[in-house]
Amino acid sequence: MEYIIEEIKSGNGRYFRKIIKDDNNRIIRQFDVKYTSCTTAIDDMTYFVLYDGDMQIVEGAYKYINIKYKNASNNTKIMYMKAIKQLYEFAAINECRISELTIDQLNQFQYFLRGYETGSKINSIYMYTGKSRKDVYKYISVCQAYMKYCRFSNYKMLDCNLSNSVKNSNQKNSNCPKFISYLEMEQILSFVDNDSSLNREDKLKYKSIYMLMEYSGLRIGEVLGLTLEDLKISTNSKGKTLYTAMIRNRVTDSSRQQAKTCLTVQNFKDYDSSEYKTKQIGWQEVLLNEETYYTVTDYFDMLDSRLSKINQHAPAADSVERHKDNNFKNYYIFTNKMNNKPLNINMLSDYTKKVFIACGIKLDKNVRENNLFHRFRHGFVMHLLYEKKMKDSIVIQYTRHTSTRSLEPYNNPTNEQ
After folding, report:
1. Is the full-model pTM beyond 0.70?
2. FRET label pair with 353: which of 43, 134, 175, 371, CA 20 to 30 Å apart?
3. How far is residue 405 CA from its own chain's centroid?
């Protein structure tokens, strides 16, 4: 007996159909699995709701996302909803409850998420929204945590599946390194310094961006969203000077300037919400080294000086702090030189590829898994793990991950490491 699972588009959504055939390829029976997710706003709060095929609310998912993770960003809640929805769909396809899934069935869940068959000649999965290996890891981590929250005793079986399968995606990659090493970073900075096609301002701009990602672990969206009021200098109790950057979202941000792990703001009222003012939910703090801080500020000072001579200024950004100077105006730090708008990521990508080629660094063959800019942040993680010899529990404080499991996709050592 064989079965076929098809993912079928329906309007803006999709559902699954399972077709069961006998040995003569005749259809014995078939059925559809339809789960629907939606959001609803009540008193400025967005609630996430999952409905089963009978349009009954899945209570466990509702409580998990809207109560347990009430203060998480909407982007995080969306990812949780997608993962949990697929777990319920998978159980329904197997005609059982999540708590009844066997270890063999849970072992098939990763393939279901990936959207391809498991190697058997008789069972096939036809999907158009298969996940990358990195996303599969995230989804399985979410689903395991959800199963534990619901007190399903088989949640540990999913963990075994995780250890034996998806983690294998972190094997050494000889085709395209997944991170920029500190030695390669030195080559990159040296190339930028000696690039005769750039003036001093542009050199500082590119160096600032690369240093923020490699030495402080910022994501590219977080870099592009940085504003003047986000850069801080303070002194700790021991008299040491600290250089930091505040990571947070603003209404004036474009989609390319989003801090994906911080609260998503919809309007100006969100700036006054308790969630926006809460660390790790509305904002995050990142340590910068002294060289990075002054490279960034030197760049902006040069940019501001050039623009002021022609009565212009950098792109305006919302100010979300109270300043002693009532005339303070906030601006995005990184701009396009030609049109004085927030820096275009495509232009940055083109120049970064030029740098990689000049430094003998292989370009990405699979953008989704070896993202051009994410390789700098990846280098930051690897430096903490293998050069600084930090424990995972300490590393996530610097990388701003919520769990040590989130480090697994980064753990891609070279032969030397």
Report:
1. no
2. 134
3. 14
